[in-house]
Amino acid sequence: MAQLTTPTMPNPSTNILRGFYLTVAAIPLGFALYKFSLSDDGQPFFTRMIQKYSDFQESFAERNALHTRVMEQAAHDRNLFVNSQGSGYVDLNFPEQFNTGSPFSVPAGHSADLTELIAFYHKKSADNEARKVEKLRARAENSTK
Predict the structure, then answer these.
(1) What backbone phi and psi angles, to 5 degrees, belong to 68?
(2) Rounded CA gap, 1 and 3, in Å?
């Protein structure tokens, strides 16, 4: 018949001692690692890493400020153009362009009377021709002298 044996319990003092020694060893190792990670100016490693990339934030802030100033100027310019009173004068090289639309589906009385407009451009053209003739006459007089 087999002999019954009672299971042996592990010695609790060995487990406690192992954890105790690991804790005691971790404290000076952690302190040494902290001192090793400090630079000459006394800043920790992670602080130096954060400061290394903080220059990007400064350039982003500078770029955003410039962008804001440009957008404010553009808004100011747009406000000037939108709210200013226009001259209402458009120099037309071809006044007949008003009559180039389709003659169909135009109700009676809705076509513009362009006689004054045509007269204005005929007068302007005659003035230009007169000015050119005067220039040519003045050149001819200067060349004969």
Answers:
(1) -65, -45
(2) 6
